[in-house]
Amino acid sequence: MKRLYAAAWLATGLLTSTGVTALTPLSPHLTPQSHQELTARLTELGFPQVGHNSVVIALTQALGFKAESKTYDYHERHAHLPRVQVHVTPDSAGCAVVALQANYQLPQPGSVQLQGLYCLSGMGQWQARQQVLTPAP
To answer: Are residues 126 and 96 in contact, defined by beta-carbon separation less than 8 angstroms?
Structure first.
């Protein structure tokens, strides 16, 4: 156990003394403003808060790192989480047109549809130019 602690302290000391910073894995994500607008609208529509992350994860995974045609299906086996289906199509300006539908397995309020236009604003970062959420039929 002492060796483990000693190795951890040594590694920390080497990283600190060489000025090397820790790296975090890059994953697609929304700008803070787009993320906040999306989750606020989900709340307004009565979409259960426990499912907000499912929508964000499915959306960002479908968008990826560049605008390209893709279909993504996010489905957890837990009944309290929604199934989210996303279809992405690139547009002529290099942005991505998104059609998303999120539904619950159990009958509960809050199934939604999203029609959006997202453009890259940085490495793997997407800014919503349009983000229209409506109740699903």
So the answer is: yes
The SS3 call for residue 123 is coil
Tens digits of per-residue pLDDT, 3-42? 655 544 544 444 444 454 455 458 999 999 999 999 999 9
Q: How many CA atoms lie within 13 A of 95 on its CB side?
A: 13
**Residue 108 CA to its chain's centroid (Å):** 23
**Angstrom distance (rounded) from CA 115 to CA 101:** 9
- Would you tell me how many other CB atoms lie within 10 Å of the CB of residue 31? 15
> For the segment 91-124, what is each residue's pLDDT rounded down to a tens digit?
988 899 999 999 987 666 668 999 999 999 999 9
Residues paired with 101 in a beta bridge: 85, 113
For 34-67, b where at least 16 C-beta lie within 10 A, e where not — what string? bbeebbebbeebebbeebbebbbbbbbebbbeeb
pTM: 0.80
